[in-house]
Amino acid sequence: MPNLRIPTMASYQHPDSSGHFGRYGGSFASETLTFALKELREAYARYQHDPAFIAEFNYEMAHFVGRPSPVYHAARTSQEMGGAQIYLKREDLNHTGAHKINNVIGQAMLAKRMGKPRIIAETGAGQHGVATATICARYGLECIVYMGAEDVKRQSPNVYRMKLLGATVVPVESGSKTLKDALNEAMRDWVANVDNTFYIIGTVAGPHPYPMMVRDFQSVIGTECLTQMPLVLAEQNLPAQQPDVVMACVGGGSNAMGIFHPYIPFDNVRLIGVEAAGEGLDTHKHSASLQRGSAGVLHGNRTFILQDDNGQIMETHSISAGLDYPGVGPEHAWLQEIGRAEYVGITDKEALAAFHYLCRTEGIIPALESSHAFAYAMKLAKEMRPDQSILVNLSGRGDKDIGTVADLSGEDFYDRPSMRGLAVKGAESKP
Ligand SMILES: Cc1ncc(COP(=O)(O)O)c(C=O)c1O
To answer: In terms of domains, do 365 and 246 share one?
Structure first.
């Protein structure tokens, strides 16, 4: 967090003091949480400019997370697409395997300073849960993670990682048993245990100050890119200092806000968020809140949500648990409204194809969430010139997804004859 409010942001000062991004954002919370949110706003306002807090955050980023994460030129992909150069911001290389850890460290540092020994979190893909369990282990805090029962099944490696790290994982059986239900349950826990509990929200959603605070912690991603891009573009003799397009997948929207935010003042840089189009934007099986939703209140803020005519939240679908959410951070709703960012969709099929392509072409196994962004980058690159560039936030690694991918391909990675053969051979050769 070298500079939470970077000077170039003078023309973009959002949210306002009540947490609004235009008509979005704000704080819709029960009376019980009013004091806790006020306490949190005050703590964040105090520590975000505190040199000791900033120094500790920077230390953690460098020595525990392994930042800065590299920017990598996907040279083979770029050549095969025959258009723009594609660059990947490698958040998958962070400790715990995704961008989620950046925000978790910031919030856990606040929890310590506020004297809250009990941490709760919601998780979809399990990456935010793993990051939270990791930091709680390191700081000696109790950790309870709420996770939809459906996501517990499809992201089982991450469930076991959380348990190994000492967290209690609570499967949520209500609703569609996915991320929104986990968030509901975590909110209920917070209301009941507000005195000793800090709720670490994993994305740029929730009541004020969460959307702003999570964005600020995640802005380390884009801030690093501002200094990395001129160097990597010069290596390819490209004329520009910054990319023509910055792109990221959007679930709740934290990895996208993290890379977008420092680029907002750069008018000639297009910002593109990629939502999960699931089985198609014209079906009911997608999670594209910005493209198919309308304004409403969900989880403490006003934003774009997928709702029916009676204002009931609709069931969502995505191949990737981390994008399977019927809302989106309010700042994205605002950026879409003012025309500063564009939002597009990628289907399950396209994301899966991009997953396999990245594995085979660049030697990187990406998260299914990140595969959505990569898939759209490959499409768009073909329409651009080779002297132009696209920067994609590769938000996480795909180890957690290999079971889902094997299932979809009709394979069983634990029980292939070839694997059995290898295992027996290895055992026989032992002395
Ligand atoms: C690797 C990865 N990318 C993206 C997301 C989506 O979250 P967000 O939109 O907040 O970045 C998740 C959520 O779990 C994730 O694990």
So the answer is: yes
Of 393, 424, 92, give the one whose Cα is nearest residue 223.
393
Write out pLDDT tens, residues 13-29. 999 999 999 999 999 99
Query: Catalytic one among 27, 89, 100, 224?
Result: 100
DSSP string of 135-167, one letter each residue: HHHHHT-EEEEEEEHHHHHHTHHHHHHHHHTTP
Percentage of the chain exceeding pLDDT 90: 91
What local confidence, expressed as pLDDT, does residue 327 receive?
A: 98
Q: Is 100 a catalytic residue?
A: yes
- Classified as helix, coil or strand, 309 is coil
CA–centroid distance, residue 68 to ligand 1 (Å): 19
- Do the domain assignments include residue 251? yes
Residue 48, C-beta contacts closer than 8 angstroms, at least 6 positions apart: 1, 4, 216
**Residue 305's domain is classified under what CATH number?**
3.40.50.1100
104 domain-assigned: yes
- SS3 of 45-85: the string is HHHCCCHHHHHHHHHHHHHHHCCCCCEEECHHHHHHHCCCE
Could you tell me the distance, in angstroms and rounded to a whole number, from the CA of residue 13 to the centre of ligand 1?
Answer: 25
Global model pTM greater than 0.90? yes
Residue 170's domain comprises 36-62+100-214
pLDDT tens readout for residues 166-209: 999 999 999 999 999 999 999 999 999 999 999 999 999 999 99
How many of the other CB atoms lie within 10 Å of CB of 118?
A: 17
Q: Is 163 a catalytic residue?
A: no
Q: Active-site residue 320, yes or no?
A: no
